[in-house]
Design goal:
Layout: H1 2-11, H2 15-25, H3 27-45, E1 71-79, H4 89-95, E2 101-112, E3 115-120, E4 132-136, H5 137-141, E5 151-153, E6 158-162, E7 168-172, H6 173-184, E8 185-190, H7 201-237, H8 239-254, H9 257-268, H10 272-282, H11 284-298, H12 302-309, H13 314-322, H14 327-351, H15 362-368, H16 379-405
Antiparallel strand pairs: 1-2, 1-8, 2-3, 3-4, 5-6, 6-7
Helix pairs in contact: 2-16, 3-7, 3-16, 7-8, 7-10, 7-11, 7-14, 8-11, 9-10, 10-14, 11-14, 12-13, 14-15, 14-16, 15-16
Length: about 425
């Protein structure tokens, strides 16, 4: 009785539940899915988790040229003499933070009266006596009216200044020095080091996930819409419609994908949006071929004939009755195309016709630093390359897992008996 009861529960499961249960058994596919989910979370959180939250993680510091992973820089934050701009959480998440201060990399600093003297960092191990810069204490801490200079009272040890609202304030020298040491002298750890322009490599790597996922997602959507539309028309109507569409498929199929993408990109111009369109317009062929083949085998089934007998329009039969039965292979192909789109975008960016600087792209990062492979800084090119490899492998593992889970010919599920 226990065996029969469990058998009934198993047979009453929906197809999606059976597919998910079989997919979970594939440990490598689940690992790939976890990697994709983590990458998606990183791309959504974006600048909120980046050490450098500036737009495109493009805070350039030439003096920090190619610093090793774990390097710690000392920075002085000097407020701008203008009205501060408030950056909301969601604005920071998607477009980055607008800084209300200027940041200067310093080697050492000391106070003298109402000013702070800083020795600028030169990038050398011994610093070689960098330029000494001087900043007013009130200038560092507050947003001042640049037309009115602060006044220093040596007897009282105070500074009187006018802020950007034209309000006059008086603060003690000791108070300002404590405020600077507490909130305006920062130590930044560059966990993956810096690139050739002194930008934080980890920040650009994290923001680069958005480019890879965006290219994959938009390109796959474009390819699925075009592929399903043309494949369904070819498979259902057959005849001259099928011949015309198959001729177009064969023409596009005969062209090298990367060459076709480059041609479309050169026509549309350089830029990330053009890459989305170009990659999508070259990936629909495989989807169309699969949909056409599936519909050719389904269109003569009894339920399709019943729809025609009931007077349903062709479009309703295709959308409501045929396509739901062919979406399994399409989903598997979408996962494969997602990986191919990421690789194509990386290749285009490596060639300089993909995402344009300062947009952080893993392919562009690899291209920019490929000269360091022969030096002791090879990690600059290897890190984004490894990121591309891991994400592409994750999508391929998920695609293989979906293929096995949706394969009705290998239904090896058996009820559990005690």
């Amino acid at each position: 009785m226990l065996f029969k009861k469990k058998r009934i529960d198993f047979e009453s499961e929906s197809l999606s539940a059976i597919t998910w249960r079989r997919f979970k058994r594939n440990k490598l596919s689940m690992l790939g899915l976890i990697v994709i989910v983590i990458t998606f979370i990183i791309s959504v959180l974006g600048y909120t988790i980046c050490p450098d939250p500036s737009p495109y993680a493009n805070d350039q510091k030439p003096e920090l040229h190619v610093k090793t992973p774990g390097f710690v820089s000392k920075v002085l934050l000097v407020n701008k003499n203008e009205k501060p701009v408030e950056t909301g959480f969601f604005e920071k998440m998607f477009v980055g933070e607008t800084f209300n201060y200027n940041s200067y990399t310093v080697y050492n600093y000391f106070f003298k009266g109402d000013v702070i003297l800083v020795e600028e960092y030169t990038g050398n191990t011994e610093n070689n006596k960098g330029t000494i810069s001087k900043y007013k204490l009130a200038d560092v801490v507050y947003h001042l009216n640049p037309a009115i200079q602060p006044t220093y009272d040596t007897l009282k040890g105070t500074v009187t200044f006018t802020d950007y609202k034209n309000e006059v304030q008086t603060k003690g020298i000791v108070e300002l020095r404590n405020e600077i040491q507490k909130n305006h002298i920062k130590y930044r750890t560059h966990y993956l080091g810096t690139d050739k322009l002194g930008r934080d490599l980890l920040s650009r790597l994290l923001i680069g996930t958005r480019i890879s996922l965006s290219v994959g997602m938009i390109s796959v959507l474009i390819s699925i819409v075009i592929g399903i539309l043309l494949g369904a028309m070819a498979g259902y109507y057959r005849g001259k419609v099928d011949a015309a569409i198959m001729w177009l498929i064969n023409v596009v199929w005969s062209l090298p994908t990367l060459l076709l993408v480059i041609a479309i990109t050169l026509i549309l111009g350089k830029g990330i949006v053009q890459v989305f369109i170009a990659v999508g317009l070259t990936m629909w062929v495989e989807v169309a071929r699969i949909v056409r083949g599936q519909i050719l085998s389904i269109r003569e089934k009894e339920f399709v004939e019943a729809g025609r007998a009931l007077g349903f329009k062709n479009m309703r039969i295709i959308l409501r009755h045929i396509l739901p039965n062919v979406m399994g292979p399409v989903v598997v192909m979408a996962a494969s195309n997602f990986a191919a789109a990421i690789l194509t975008e990386a290749g285009l960016s490596y060639l300089g016709i993909g995402a344009q600087p300062p947009v952080p792209s893993w392919g562009e990062m690899t291209s920019t630093h490929h000269g360091y492979i022969l030096m002791d800084k090879a990690y600059l090119a290897f890190i984004p390359g490894i990121a591309i490899m891991i994400l592409v492998l994750a999508f391929m593992l998920v695609g293989n897992g979906l293929r096995d889970a949706l394969d009705t010919r290998s239904m090896d599920d058996k009820p559990i008996s005690n």
